[in-house]
Design goal:
Shape: rod-shaped
Number of strands: 0
InterPro entries: OEP7-like
Strand content: under 5%
Distance between the termini: 132 Å
Largest sheet: none
Radius of gyration: 42 Å
Keywords: Membrane, Transmembrane, Transmembrane helix
Number of helices: 2
Structural class: mainly alpha
Amino acid sequence: MPPTALSPSSSLTWSLPPQHHHSDLVFMWKLAQKLNICSGVVAMGALAFGYLTLQLGFKPFLEKAQLQQQQREQEALLQAQSDFSEAQNIADDGFNTAHTTILSDGLPKSDHKL
């Protein structure tokens, strides 16, 4: 019986027929590397194509969402500024009220007479 690539008696171990030489194995290895590189390039191209498709397909929706986000941020900033100015006005009013209760001699008003 001539030797085969997978002999039944080898319990699933690979054996090369005697006509294969080292140069054939090197050639097959280099070919496999080239095929793997080509597969990687094709996969990267497919990912890039998919990304661009999503960007172009959803561009109107993405722009609308970005505008809404910017509007929310501006509204929040304006609200924070108005809250700050309102708090500052309240603090100023409190300071003015406390300042008017002090008499000209530097002592606070008192209902108690000595």
